[in-house]
Amino acid sequence: MGYVSGGASIVGVSGNVRVLSYASGRLHVRSVSADITVGIAEGVSFAVDAESVSGTVSSEIPVDDFPARHGGSPEVVIAAKNRLR
User: Fold this and answer.
1) If the chain, 85 residues long, is cut into consecutive pieces of 10 residues, what is the mean pLDDT of each piece?
2) CA 85 to CA 64: how far, in whole Å?
3) pTM
């Protein structure tokens, strides 16, 4: 996918999922056997809930270093799960 803003849900079975830039809302990504890559728009606060059964979870951005702006909710929430059926 390209550039996404607002809520979105992506479900894949055995193909990599890549979002170039996500700007706002809740993003839910679920895959059975694939890599999940999500780019975050510059300057956006975010929260991540990620889980994998047989792979690794990593982030190029330190996820615990970005508190929500002004003590409020994050602008982007990402829930990613990679699991076998």
Assistant:
1) 81 82 86 83 82 73 57 74 68
2) 30
3) 0.70
CA distance 85 to 27: 21
pLDDT score for 64: 61
How far apart are alpha carbons 85 and 78 in whole angstroms? 21
76: number of Cβ within 10 Å: 20
Burial 3-41 (b: 16+ CB within 10 A, else e): ebeeeeebebeeeebebeebbbeebebbbebbebebebb
Cβ-contact 66, 73 below 8 angstroms: no
Residue 74 · residue 64 · CB < 8 Å: no
Q: What CA–CA distance (Å, rounded) separates 43 from 41?
A: 6
Contact 27, 78 (CB under 8 A): yes
